[in-house]
Amino acid sequence: MQMLYNSDSFAVLQIDFGLPDADAAAGSRGGFEIVDKFARKGIFIEGAVAQSFKDGVQALIESGPSQEALDEYIAGYTTLAQQPVILH
């Protein structure tokens, strides 16, 4: 797990699930966990949705975005977040 982005509004973590040695040629599997701090909800995205998210973030980074622009982009993915954030 690696923290990629952390603002007052959102946190984005990259999660990679390693495969057993026998499946190493197939690569790894994973995705992104996005937490909306104000709504106190999170979502895990993987596959094509995760790739689309990653491509969009990379395009934003190339243009030198502000924190507000990144937060606005991330907010588009949290509209479907249903998993409540629970602190232990």
Features:
single chain, 88 residues, alpha+beta, 5-stranded antiparallel sheet, 2 helices, 5 strands
Topology:
Blueprint: E1 2-6, E2 10-17, E3 29-36, E4 41-46, H1 47-62, H2 67-78, E5 83-84
Antiparallel strand pairs: 1-2, 2-3, 3-4, 4-5
Question: Could you explain how this protein is built, in words?
Answer:
The protein is α+β, with helices and mostly antiparallel strands. 32% of the residues lie in helices and 33% in strands. It has one domain (2-84). Helix 1 runs antiparallel to helix 2 (67-78).
Q: In summary, what is this structure?
A:
32% of the residues lie in helices and 33% in strands.
Molecular shape: globular
Q: Order of strands in the sheet with the most strands?
A: 1-2-3-4-5
Structural class: alpha+beta
Topology as H/E string?
EEEEHHE
Number of domains: 1
Record field, number of beta strands: 5
Helix content: 25-40%
Using the CA coordinates, give the radius of gyration.
14 Å
Question: How many helices in DSSP terms?
Answer: 2
Low-confidence stretches: none
Distance between the termini: 18 Å
Beta-strand residue fraction = 25-35%
State the major sheet: 5 strands, antiparallel
Task: Let me know the average pLDDT.
Answer: 86
